Amino acid sequence: MTVSIRRYERLPGQHIHSFDQIVLPFAGTMDIEIGSRGGKVDAGHGALIAAGQRHVFHAEPGDRFIVVDMDDIAIVPERGAFFPIPSAIAHLLGYVRARQDNSAQHSDLHVPLPDMFARPWATLLVDALFGLETSPVDSGGRAIARAFKFMRANLEKRCTTAEIAAAAGLGERRLHALFHARFGSTPREELMRLRLDFARALLCSTSLPIAEIAVMSGHADQSALTRRMRDVRGITPAVARRIASA
Question: The HTH araC/xylS-type domain covers which part of the protein (predicted)?
């Protein structure tokens, strides 16, 4: 888990990464599209970006944002969401601002905060975000988050719905009901989505062979990944990689 203050160039940026991310305002406004959802990160709003979710953004060069890379824990059970910033989180943001020299114009694009400070601060942030009634995660969200954490940790394995339910601390029927209410899909369908998201993230960010990526993302072989991605996403792995490198 890392916390940093980041600036972005004037031109719009397009990112995809293999970990969940929280983006919060520091100074300025960011227009961002997460998947097909558009919104802003500004004084009153933050953004949750799920692993493997393509996002496009634009901010002015002088604008800065607090970015939390959740590279060692999965916390976002949605495909991406925007949320209002309540007072508990506003106080945490104010604390970071107070520690920084706001009179200085930092030229660095990426200023990491010391791990000694960043990790406990980020833990408080996650607790505040996912424990509030205004959070995108409802009372069943923590169980769903546990299910997603288990699935992401076992993408390459043949895990069953019963195993996913056990990891979430639920029975299979309750797990199905929560997933249907939240996503309109089944746990198996969401697992397939995660596998495709992970495969695409690897295709776009690494030079690993497609056959190796197929196995790492839980597909039997390269042909299975190609069929699944073409049927569900309308694109092949080779084309996805070519578009990302263009």
Answer: 145-243
